[in-house]
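ARCHIVE CARD
CATEGORY: sequence design from structure
SOURCE FIELD: tokenized fold
FIELD CONTENT:
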């Protein structure tokens, strides 16, 4: 405690150097909070848009559908009604469970015919699940409309279709024949993923079943109250479903683009963190070395009075520790204020690669990010104080006393 008190007095006494050190440390913390908070917001926005566009939090299917369902989709149908579906809807933390059926084929309009990927959905339940599917023209599917179609903007542009046009959908039935139905385009939608908008259309579940000649669905897509609860709810649902019949897949295993983006940005932020840490080390080390040089006579005096070398090292390390604590706290307070201000104003951003929607960025400072930034500031300041403290402890008493004469 006496060492910390002396270190605090030395910091207060050397105001100019202390202010420079605090400015360097707090600047590093602010930079980490703003840069890391912006990346955390990107992760959060991508995660919620990915979940809310078409994946949901948990997808439940027959065993093998995720691996082989594209080759033989009729082999992995779930029943239209079952006790398991009822239990899923009543599970804690679950908002809704939406049945879906996937299919593919050709869509024709006039002389144009293009391939598509189709989703048969329940319009009422998809209102909660597909909140990031934005209807840019027309209206969304309605429960009472059994022949409506909504298309991705890119698919509609390739086909030359507008809202109100009637198109023909063709696909293969399980028996090997070709099935066709007519539907009217009710609206065009856009999601955060452009590739999805360029290939997907949605129809009501009864129309999809009629087109394919089946009565079940391929997926039960589950939406949760909180994305953070995905793993806990997964464990609960595994206990209520027969593992020999049903397969549960979390959204994290399906969002390949999101996972790769997180890895890339995490590595980039690691480089930024290392650079800021190096700047703090160099700045504080230089300041502490100047401190040692200017206080050489004082160091000789305290050593002559019986202060041991390890105590002298502890005093300088304590000064570095206190500078790190104070600088981190100042940086945290200022950084949180700037983050709130910038988030209130917003950061205009162009559409990211592979996406079709501009964004308004924000700064999202998480507790983990704040703690990591403060720890980095304190640790790097301590590291920067090691060499000056060792240098001070190696001074010869007689030479140190003569230094200021």
């Amino acid at each position: 405690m006496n060492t910390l008190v002396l270190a605090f007095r030395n910091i207060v006494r050397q105001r100019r150097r202390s202010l420079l050190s605090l400015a360097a440390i707090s600047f590093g913390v602010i930079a980490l909070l703003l840069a890391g908070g912006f990346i955390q917001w990107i992760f959060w926005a991508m995660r919620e848009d990915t979940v809310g566009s078409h994946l949901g939090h948990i997808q439940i299917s027959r065993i093998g559908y995720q691996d082989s369902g594209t080759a033989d989709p009729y082999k992995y149908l779930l029943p239209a009604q079952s006790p398991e579906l009822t239990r899923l809807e009543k599970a804690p933390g679950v908002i809704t469970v939406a049945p879906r059926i996937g299919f593919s084929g050709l869509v024709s309009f006039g002389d144009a015919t293009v391939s598509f990927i189709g989703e048969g959905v329940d319009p009422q339940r998809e209102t909660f699940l597909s909140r990031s599917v934005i209807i840019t023209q027309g209206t969304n599917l309605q429960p009472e409309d059994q022949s409506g179609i909504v298309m991705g903007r890119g698919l509609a542009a390739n086909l030359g279709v507008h809202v109100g046009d009637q198109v023909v959908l063709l696909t293969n039935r399980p028996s090997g024949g070709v099935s066709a139905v007519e539907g009217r385009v009710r609206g065009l939608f856009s999601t955060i993923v452009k590739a999805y908008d360029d290939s997907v259309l949605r129809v009501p579940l009864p129309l999809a079943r009629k087109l394919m000649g089946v009565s079940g669905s391929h997926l039960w897509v589950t939406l949760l109250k909180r994305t953070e609860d995905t793993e806990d709810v997964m464990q609960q649902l595994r206990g209520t479903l027969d593992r020999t019949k049903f397969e549960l897949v979390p959204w994290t295993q399906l969002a390949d683009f999101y996972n790769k983006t997180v890895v890339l940005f995490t590595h980039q932020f690691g480089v930024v963190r290392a650079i800021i840490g190096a700047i703090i080390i160099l700045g504080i080390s230089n300041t502490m070395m100047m401190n040692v040089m200017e206080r050489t006579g004082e160091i000789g005096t305290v050593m002559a009075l019986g202060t041991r070398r390890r105590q002298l090292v502890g005093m300088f390390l304590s000064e570095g520790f206190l500078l790190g604590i104070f600088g981190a706290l100042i940086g945290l307070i200022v950084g949180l204020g700037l983050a709130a201000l910038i988030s209130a104003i917003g950061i205009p951003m162009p559409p990211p690669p592979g996406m079709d929607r501009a964004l308004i960025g924000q700064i999202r400072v998480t507790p983990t990010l704040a703690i990591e930034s403060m720890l980095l500031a304190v640790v790097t300041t301590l590291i920067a104080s090691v060499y000056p403290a060792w240098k001070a402890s190696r001074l010869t008493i007689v030479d140190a006393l003569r230094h200021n004469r």
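CARD ANNOTATION: Residues 15-55 form the longest helix (41 residues). Residues 52 and 130 are 5 Å apart (CA to CA).
SHELF: design records, drawer C
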